[in-house]
Amino acid sequence: MTLLAIEGLHAGYGRIPILQGIDMAVARGSFTGVLGHNGMGKTTLMRTIMGQITPTAGRITLDGQDITRLSTHGRAAKGLAYVPQGREIFSNLTVEENLQMGLLGLPSRAEQKTEMARILEDLPRLKPILTRSGGVLSGGEQQILAIARSLCTNPTLLILDEPTEGIQPSIVEEIIDILHALRKSRDLTVLLVEQKLDFIEALADTTFVIQRGTITGTLSPKEMSDPDTVREFVGLS
Ligand SMILES: Nc1ncnc2c1ncn2[C@@H]1O[C@H](COP(=O)(O)OP(=O)(O)OP(=O)(O)O)[C@@H](O)[C@H]1O
């Protein structure tokens, strides 16, 4: 069943059109990839899905409900969460405080405590570094923290924008394991923008190819594992 549907979506910056009729459907419970060269509009698409950019045409529905005109806040309340490129954690707050900030939206202290425990159970990697300040974490640890913080609202759809950017290979493997584990422990759908083919191949059930602001095809995990096919579709290897 489709969780997120995007139909004929157009968006851009001022008068510069970037998305030029995006059509895609993200199945509930799936891990769906979006692959494309630099500047093809991947981040613009994610920000438009989150409501940070207003589309000039088209429709976005979540669980059958039209969210095209909803605020970012309204979309978060409906279950969307976004980990932007660059991650945006609070570098002068500790790991624990970063998570507490994310949990402030929950109505009671008791619920905040329960949710914190659940997040640390899902991401035990954070336990030993709870008192460390966000700014001194490695890129990989910051990414894990950003994912943890996005879970504070207990999202149904998690959007990750290039989570492996600038991260050392051993932690990339760890993030793959974390996302696989989250898939088992939570009822989570993930939309994943990436340039690293092996990362997307390890996680995505389907990958949409974006070129110059439109979706030009989809790749199965088997096709993703064949560099020639990917090169042909995307020009990436
Ligand atoms: N705030 C902005 N104002 C004007 N143009 C922008 C803005 N942000 C992005 N663009 C342009 O929009 C186009 C698409 O950018 P976008 O960031 O969506 O691409 P991307 O596929 O995510 O690439 P990357 O992997 O480099 O982030 C690019 O040509 C970019 O220069």
Describe the model.
The structure is a single chain. With 237 residues, the protein is of the alpha/beta class. The protein has one domain: P-loop containing nucleotide triphosphate hydrolases (Rossmann fold, 3-Layer(aba) Sandwich), CATH 3.40.50.300. Helix content is 36%, strand content 27%. The protein has 9 helices and 10 strands. A 6-stranded mixed β-sheet has the order 6-7-8-3-9-10, with helices on both faces. It has a 4-stranded antiparallel β-sheet with strand order 2-1-4-5, with helices on one face. Helix 3 packs parallel to helix 5 and helix 5 runs parallel beside helix 6 (169-185). The longest helix has 17 residues, at 169-185. The radius of gyration is 17 Å and the shape is globular. The two termini are 32 Å apart. Adenosine-5'-triphosphate binds next to strand 2 and helix 1.
